[in-house]
Amino acid sequence: MTTFQRPWHQYYPPEVPVQIDYDKRPIHDYLKESAERHGGKKALYFMGKEMTYQEVYEQAVTVAGYLQYLGLEKGDRVSIMLPNCPQSVISYYAVLMAGGIVVQTNPLYMERELEYQLKDSGAKMIICLDILYPKAANVKAETSLEHILVTGIKDYLPFPKNKIYPFIQKRQYQVLVKPEQSMDTHLWPGVLKKNHSFKAVDVDAVEDLALLQYTGGTTGFPKGVMLTHYNLVVNTQMAQKWLYKCEEGKESVLAILPFFHVYGMTSVMNLSVMMANEIILMPKFEAEDVLKVIEKRKPTLFPGAPTIYIALLNHPNLQKYDLSSIEACISGSAPLPVEVQERFEAVTGGKLVEGYGLTETSPTTHSNLIWGKRVSGSVGIPWPDTDAKIIQMESDVEAPFGEIGEIAVKGPQVMKGYWNKPEETAQVLSEDGWFRTGDMGYMNEDGYFYIVDRKKDMIIAGGYNIYPREVEEVLYEHSEIQEAVVVGVPDPYRGETVKAFIVKKQGSDITEEELNEYCRKNIAAYKVPRLYEFREELPKTAVGKILRRSLVEEERQKYEDAESIQ
Question: Cβ neighbours of residue 253 under 8 Å, at least 6 residues apart?
């Protein structure tokens, strides 16, 4: 029996319970509780603006009352299209208080993407930034939208930033459409001045949806992942137990991960609100701005992604800043190179461990122990009350220790299914609750899991199975490489061949020939990239995950274009 189940609890330190008595109550209850217990404590810091938990709660209640006044009923979907700012936190909890279902929407979406998500979710309202208002207005007639609530960054800036920012914004975006209050357009400052009565809504935490979180699939159409209040509560409580040394009301969390991504939403926003921690909001990632904020605000927790840590480590002014306040970081969204882990810990003195999860699991299922045994290169062991196993390729048979197969997980954080897609749900979610992740990996005899790659990212070249992550680990160990991603590209002889996209460190003049020689000394010949391409930057998602599939599609298109010419 190779399934990781709760009898493996000897790997947890005594402070981490193997099973937790999960709260069966709505996720938004925690904002109310934190306001009652820590009302005067700082909840949010945003570009000089500070808000207490009492202030955040009161504004969320006001917005919830306004949404109900506009006709929001239990189960209605509301899109939130905001970066990390006070409004994103307030809106999230307000929608849930009013009985709605949050639809997190990436502010970078183009109109076509926005229209698809709004149509698919059937969203009745959208809350967006003023600079995004034209997009929402342009697609409104083609969707179920009835109301647009509009806010701006300046709405929460302290004086004099709130007076200066509109001029900066106008120059940056050149043409800024200024929305005006109307029957279907509602301006945030006016919303907060209204005093429409709020009526509490009965919520069945286990059954009722809190969130439609769309997968960021780079091929095909994104699917809406149905997450209940209970899914979100249990994953947040799991995170709280994992961070057992952190104290309620005493931590400060750096919020670079966007809340419109499930990782940032759970590991930063929901966890912080549950523990009454301060959230340092950053609407976008700029490396030097982050270094300045860390030195000034001294966050203790810093959830992130490898590309974020890499950018900070390679910033030319890194040594000028004091990062010693950072105590714990869980890295997700992409594999964490061992070299990055070791360098970041040396710079900060804190702990950086790799974790694993998916949108469909709220998101976290595995992590290394922050204050305990950890294994570099592994994503660690399953979180409390989470089972996991490796399934052999093209079967439902469990793989033995050390054999690569598909990772499957089971636990209370696993989604209810895909929105309006029962057939696709049935393909990945069994009747007894096992979710097939589509990720390839293996488990060692100590119960530690290793991610090899996405099933669909595996390269088959000349009959050999090649896992990009293995090649990328070798590339990251080279002293002159800042970022690397490996993909399979069409090859008429081998079927696929290995190509590496490289971002050099500043000042590096490394050549393709030197890299080829380096790789041949460190990995088997069939895994060595046959092609290299140097770039200034790599395409990434908002959370910092490198868009491997976009590079694959780019290469495939080049191949097809070349074939059509011949």
Answer: 268, 271, 272, 277, 278, 279, 280, 299, 300, 301, 302, 303
Distance from the Cα of residue 504 to its chain's centroid: 26
- Per the DSSP assignment, residues forming a β-bridge with 351 are 328
pLDDT digits (tens, 9 = 90+) for 117-168: 999 999 999 999 999 999 999 999 999 999 999 999 999 998 888 888 776 7
6-13+26-439 falls under which CATH superfamily?
ANL, N-terminal domain (3.40.50.12780)
At a CB cut-off of 8 Å and minimum separation 6, what does 509 contact? none
Asked if omega into 7 is within 30° of 0 (cis), the reply is no
Helix (H) or strand (E) holding 563: helix 548-565
| Cα gap 55→33, rounded to integer Å | 13
- Which tokens hold the place of 549? 């599939």
Q: Does residue 147 sit in helix, strand or coil? A: strand
Question: To 10 degrees, what angle do helices 306-313 and 287-297 make?
Answer: 90
Residue 249: what are its φ and ψ, rounded to 5°? Answer: 75, 5
Q: What does the alpha-carbon distance between residue 151 and residue 283 come to, in Å, rounded to a whole number?
A: 14
User: Among 506, 508, 507, 487, which Cα is nearest to 498's?
Assistant: 487
392's CB contacts (< 8 A; 6+ apart) are 398, 399, 403, 405
> Helix (H) and strand (E) counts for the chain?
17, 25
Residue 72 in contact with residue 101, Cβ under 8 Å?
no
Helix (H) or strand (E) holding 471: helix 468-476
DSSP label of 352: E
Q: Which residues face 532 on adjacent strands? A: 500
Q: What confidence score (pLDDT) does residue 170 get?
A: 65
**Per residue in 18-59, pLDDT tens?**
789 999 999 999 999 999 999 999 999 999 999 999 999 999
* Cβ burial, residue 396 (10 Å; 0-12/13-18/19+): exposed
Angle in degrees, CA 189, 249, 151, rounded to 5: 15
Query: At 470, is the secondary structure helix, strand, or coil?
Result: helix
3-class state of residue 442 by DSSP: strand
Among 476, 442, 259, 449, which residue's Cα sits nearest to residue 354? 449
In the chain, what are the domain boundaries? Answer: 6-13+26-439, 464-565
Name which residue leads in pLDDT, 564 or 450.
450
Cβ contact 228:203 at 8 Å? no
**On the CB side of 188, how many CA atoms lie within 13 Å of its CA?**
22
- DSSP letters, 17-84, are -SS-----S-TTHHHHHHHHHHTTSEEEEETTEEEEHHHHHHHHHHHHHHHHHTT--TT-EEEEE--S
User: What residues contact 561, with CB distance under 8 A and at least 6 apart?
Assistant: none
Domain covering 464-565, topology: GMP Synthetase; Chain A, domain 3 (3.30.300)
Tokens 């917005």 -> residue: 63
Which residue type sits at 162? N
Q: What is the CA radius of gyration of the chain?
A: 24
253/540 Cα distance (integer angstroms): 23
